[in-house]
Amino acid sequence: MSRSVLVTGGNRGIGLAIARAFAEAGDKVAITYRSGEPPAGFLAVKCDVTEPEQVEQAYKEIEEKQGAVEVLIANAGVTRDQLLMRMSEEDFSTVLDTNLTGTFRVVKRANRAMLRARKGRIVLISSVVGLLGSAGQANYAASKAGLVGFARSLARELGSRNITVNVVAPGFVDTDMTRALSDEQREGIVKQVPLGRYGQAEEIAASVRFLASDEAAYITGAVIPIDGGLGMGH
């Protein structure tokens, strides 16, 4: 059965791969984006998750055009990397407001219809950095670690209504962001990964789609690392 799926930040990288995976499975897929031209083939809604009014308007448009959101993938995120001594209040608060509070906003709004339907799938996209930590990324790591506590609290809160809440923690994935690194930086990262390579966005998408499937109906509150072994033990 075709479901109404929303992928925030679904216009590029991991988010786009996830959106494509659901569309290929026959689901109706909406994506949010902040700027630029969105990819074709989806219901694309311009939305900044740091603005509550934009989140509300995005949901109204999605509900009108493809029905209440049954599967939510909270993927939208930003980085403002800087060593702590140079990190500004704005660098810290912007990352937390987008990655963590923005996720709160989109999940809370989706929760309304899921509670009425007594079913739903929520997957939050965290990061291996939220588990391992990373010098120069205290703000990003804090925001991504916060998603774990958020998800596990909701898993307990919503489980009786047949709503599952899980977290996927990708490692270093071959996207535009990592391709912008120097060859030396890329080699240094790969040396830390037991499997000796970058992940592919499609590999992240496959696990996300599984968590949203009937086969994963008894999985909730889980943190799934997809990182080539980089963060094992965390």
TrEMBL record:
InterPro entries xrefs: 3oxo_ACP_reduc (IPR011284), KR_dom (IPR057326), NAD(P)-bd_dom_sf (IPR036291), Sc_DH/Rdtase_CS (IPR020904), SDR (IPR050259), SDR_fam (IPR002347)
GO MF term set: 3-oxoacyl-[acyl-carrier-protein] reductase (NADPH) activity; NAD binding
GO biological process: fatty acid biosynthetic process
Pfam families: adh_short_C2 (PF13561)
Enzyme class: oxidoreductase
Enzyme Commission number(s): 1.1.1.100
Keywords: Fatty acid biosynthesis, Fatty acid metabolism, Lipid biosynthesis, Lipid metabolism, NADP, Oxidoreductase
SUPFAM superfamilies: NAD(P)-binding Rossmann-fold domains (SSF51735)
Domain Ketoreductase: 3-176
Active site positions, chain numbering: Y140 (proton acceptor)
Keyword Ligase: no
UniProt xrefs under Gene3D superfamilies: NAD(P)-binding Rossmann-like Domain
Swiss-Prot/TrEMBL catalytic activity: a (3R)-hydroxyacyl-[ACP] + NADP(+) = a 3-oxoacyl-[ACP] + NADPH + H(+)
Annotated function: Catalyzes the NADPH-dependent reduction of beta-ketoacyl-ACP substrates to beta-hydroxyacyl-ACP products, the first reductive step in the elongation cycle of fatty acid biosynthesis.
Assembly, per entry: Homotetramer.
Assigned protein family: Belongs to the short-chain dehydrogenases/reductases (SDR) family.
Protein name: 3-oxoacyl-[acyl-carrier-protein] reductase
